[in-house]
Amino acid sequence: MTLGTWTPDQGAPTPPDADTLAKAAEFGVESADRFPSNPVDALEPLQVWMRQSRSAWAPLLEPLPTEQLVRLVRFFTLAEHHWAGWEGQDKNPVVWICKELKTRDAFPDAELTQWIKSHTENRFLPYGNPLA
User: Which superkingdom, per the lineage (predicted)?
Assistant: First the structure.
């Protein structure tokens, strides 16, 4: 008989600060062709947030301006596509950001949706899991 180890759920990780989100948004402005192939150290804290729930993301997204949210959509789409270990699947922050944009009547946006679809292999983007 073997015994495993049990690690209690630590809850949600420490939320990213506004500066980290602003840096990520600036990466979203860059061309997809110039997106780095490896994560940037300053953005590493966001990796653990790739699979957090909508309720964890909501207080972080609500105060951000719409333009910054759109840039974050681009960042998280590209980060998942280019960086190993950044897979968000149906909990990718893009889903939660698009839901926030919808509350502001800024989504669906045909151009942004087409951009997302052309830069990801994640079938859940941008709308999330229809069965969830």
Answer: Bacteria
Kindly report, residue by residue over 5-31, the tens digit of the pLDDT: 666 556 668 999 999 999 999 987 767
- The token pair at 123 is 């079938």
pLDDT band per the 50, 70, 90 thresholds, residue 41: very high
User: What angle (nearest 5°) sits at the alpha carbon of residue 46, between those of residues 63 and 22?
Assistant: 45
> Model-level pTM?
0.88
List Cβ<8 Å contacts ≥24 apart for 19-26.
Answer: 20/45, 20/46, 21/46, 21/60, 21/64, 21/68, 21/72, 22/68, 24/72, 24/75, 24/76, 24/79, 25/68, 25/71, 25/72, 25/75, 26/71
